Amino acid sequence: MRILILGGDGYLGWPTAMRFSAGGHKVSVVDNFSRRRWHVQHSTGSLTPIRSLADRVEAWLQVSGNEIGTFVGSMEDADFLERVIAETLPEAIVHYAEQPSAPYSMKSREAAVETQYTNVIGTLNLLFAIRDRVPDCHLVKLGTMGEYGTPNIDIEEGFIEIEHKGRRDTLPFPKMPGSLYHLSNVHDSHNIHFACRIWGLRATELNQGVVYGVETAESAEHDRLITRFDYDEYFGTVLNRFCVQAVIGHPMTVYGEGGQTRGFLNIRDTLQCVELAVTNPAELGEFRVFNQFTEQFSVSQLAELVRRSGEELGYGVEVRSFPIPRIEAERHYYNATNTKLIDLGLKPHHLGEELVRSMLRIIERHKGRVIERAILPTTRWKPGELLGEVEAAERRP
Ligand code: USQ
């Protein structure tokens, strides 16, 4: 298949590009390097020493003999995006090209507007380009489990059957996101659903949980193929952050009581899921939603798992409660359905001590690169609250 990966220089985008290329597909990637730019702006960076996109593509050609096409530009630039689509004529588009951080979206008005502009307008430009250039193309869009929030009922996969005043219908599942980033994905969902209903496009939204992990089968083949690994306040996800904190001897930053429960998955399973979605496309006019996670954990369960796993490698890791910078429930009901990808054949990699230890060993190799200043949360969902409390918690013995 001809496959276009939007955001193909990113944490998930680059491994996805290699996976499809290894599978014999004709792969092109689009990226505007915004993640690299946001890191430069914050004087932070990936734990892993990632290469430039050109260098990665060259290394992949040497390792695999396969070429990956590259296009540098932004999805907000509709003319650029339409030119790329007209040139590559993709049969499937995997769309990762968004600002993916909840804290980043909450740090200022400018960052919130940038997040929603990048995400919502980028996706809207994409829908028009698909409609006008490749209306049969299957859009696989990375969404997020955070669109649903934490309702006091089971979370279904995108839609819920409702009975109201004696009548029944299947309608989009109610959304109650907890950040302006997660909300941008709700807007995307509505726009994509609209494009399927009104224009007859086909799309699969992958409402992904929190991803962890470093290595994939392809990235492990050569140092130059390694993907990025973020651990900073903005772009590091919770388990990746805890693993880095354990290796450098920083107390693990459990926000509040750590009762927040989410769906999680290994980066290798992200690739499996995206592959399953692409190779089993939606019908024309269909908007499918898959909940893409393999297991549920609370934050304190993860901290405890990292502590136990680290102990065996000689790390005396402290788990510490930090004032919660977000507005989110610390104790809540959480039970999300995730059967659709399993039904398509997903074979999950389950999280356990051995897996955490393998992450800790990789992190150890790069621990000299950790910028400690980037770890503690500085962004408040309600600015003005809790000022100084995080710093005080940091000083506590
Ligand atoms: N948390 C801590 N300590 C930390 C970091 C996070 O206790 O040092 C807590 C957060 O308060 C939250 C949970 O861990 O309750 C998850 O936080 P996260 O930063 O790992 O994940 P989140 O902000 O939800 O966003 C991440 C990705 C996002 C993706 C989302 C999937 O950055 O792109 O959409 O996971 S989900 O969470 O299912 O919405």
What's the short version?
The protein has helices at residues 13-22, 34-42, 53-64, 78-88, 102-106, 109-133, 180-199, 238-248, 267-279, 299-312, 340-344, 353-365, 389-395; strands spanning 2-6, 26-31, 68-72, 92-95, 138-144, 159-164, 167-172, 202-208, 210-212, 252-255, 261-266, 287-292, 295-298, 319-322. The protein is an alpha/beta fold and 397 residues long.
Outline the structure in words.
With 397 residues, this protein is α/β, with parallel strands linked by helices. 39% of the residues lie in helices and 18% in strands. The strands form four sheets. The protein has a seven-stranded parallel sheet, sandwiched between helices. The chain has a three-stranded mixed sheet with strand order 9-11-13. A two-stranded antiparallel ribbon has the order 6-7. Helix 1 (13-22) crosses helix 9 (267-279), helix 4 runs parallel beside helix 6 (109-133) and helix 6 (109-133) packs parallel to helix 7 (180-199). The chain starts with a strand and ends with a helix. The mean pLDDT is 96.
Features:
397 residues, alpha/beta, Rossmann fold, seven-stranded parallel β-sheet, three-stranded mixed β-sheet, 13 helices, 14 strands, binds sulfoquinovose-uridine-C1,5'-diphosphate
The strands making up the biggest β-sheet line up spatially as: 3-2-1-4-5-8-12
Mass-distribution shape = globular
Biggest sheet details: 7 strands, parallel
Bound molecules: sulfoquinovose-uridine-C1,5'-diphosphate
Helix content: 25-40%
Which architecture of one domain would the CATH scheme give at its second level?
Answer: 3-Layer(aba) Sandwich
Figure out the total of helices: 13
Name of the CATH superfamily of one domain: NAD(P)-binding Rossmann-like Domain
Distance N to C terminus: 57 Å
Strand-residue proportion: 15-25%
Mean pLDDT: 96
User: What would you report as the Rg, rounded to the nearest angstrom?
Assistant: 20 Å
Give the tally of β-strands. 14
Q: What is the SS-derived class?
A: alpha/beta
What ranges have pLDDT less than 50 throughout 5 or more consecutive residues? none
What is the chain-wise order of helices and strands? EHEHHEHEHHEEEHEEHEEHEEHEHHH
CATH class assignment of one domain: Alpha Beta
Q: Kindly report the oligomeric state of this protein.
A: single chain
Q: What is the CATH topology descriptor of one domain?
A: Rossmann fold
